[in-house]
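Feature request, filed as a ticket because there's no other form

It would be nice if the structure record came with a short human-readable summary line next to the tokens. Right now we just get the raw output. Example of a typical job, pasted below so the devs can see what we mean:
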Amino acid sequence: MEADRRLLVSVFGPQEAREAVLGGARIIDSEDPRSALGTIKPRRIMDIADAVLAARRELPVQLSTNIGEDQLLYRRAENGLAVAKSAYEQVGKAAQAALGVALAMGIRVHPCGIVKVGLDGMTAAEAGEVLGEIVATVRRADGLSATRVMAVLFAQDLDLWDARKTLPQVRRALVGLGEYHPCGPDTPGAFDLADHAAAAGLPDTARGSFVAVNEPFPHDRYGLTWARRTDRTAIRAMVEASAAAGADAIMLDTSILLKVARIGLVSTAGSTELVDLDRHDTDAHGLARAGILTLDEIRAFVDLCHDHGLEANLAGSLQSHQAQQLWRLVPALDQLSARGGVSALAHGGATRHGRTVRSALVRGLVPPEQHGHLLVPPPMAGTEDLVTLLKRHPDLPAYLTTPHGDLTPLG
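Raw output as currently delivered:
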């Protein structure tokens, strides 16, 4: 049987949903980019479902919605640490949220909606309990028994994070997203909120209000691995827990903290098979894109998922050059997911909520058998690495793109 490989695109409203379908997305994911956790109102999910239902499409399209990056229902203590509430409440609230988004998606577009469940800050056992309750709940619900459940593990590289979290542009973006907590001026990593409040679009703040950015939940605290980056040990623990709970798929993603620091899931550096175009992908401050997992680790993840009967999904600030190489080098990969890589500047802003999904950019991440093409930002054009990539994959159409999403064929 021929593989049914699909691109998931996260959208915020009906127009973005139409753009995603037009570009070839096969899973339309409801997400609020203005929120650090992506939580979206049920009525907005219904609006997106209506738009997909009315859109012209050549291949089947599914809907998906996440229920937040983590299910801890925690509060932040004064030192920024997460203080979890009762385990029973965590499981119950997660199942309630899953049932709610599954009902909002409905079954008119596709009989199998997908509920994405973030499992940040959990042990494998806790994650399995949450997933198991969600699976049992949606499969018992009238009309929703075909709903699929996708676990989400947030990959991390704490050394990369530590090296980038103090950069002014990273702090400014995280302040704008509310990813910070009050602290004393002598706290490691403390900075004056007033230095970034105005640039982040917040009201003027009196000087002397010291804060620190929130931190990722380190894997070693939850028994996943002793390594400071996500490795095969951590991945195996979460894949096995997801399969045991009855989930249908697992996604590897990166949290908003790492996304802001330009740390994505896929590392192209040092690979003999992946052409490293990341080093040419720099922001206005000269900060190059960096990644976490190697190609061999990605292949191992896909094989492990399939051994346990799960679909494998990769997310985490994926770019066109990464996607088009992964589809070719890991043919068993089931899904890729994106938002930033398929959205362009809008409303004069460069923040997450100042970008909008464009159909032409979506085409840059769809699989080759669905007419995917390579999008080339100006800094990559003319580089030897790009020449190498096109020589390796001569069937790959390439287009020069602008920050606003305009495309020009690359001659």
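Something like this underneath would help us a lot:
The CA atoms of residues 264 and 326 lie 14 Å apart.
Residues 6-157+218-409 form a domain with the TIM Barrel fold (CATH 3.20.20.380).
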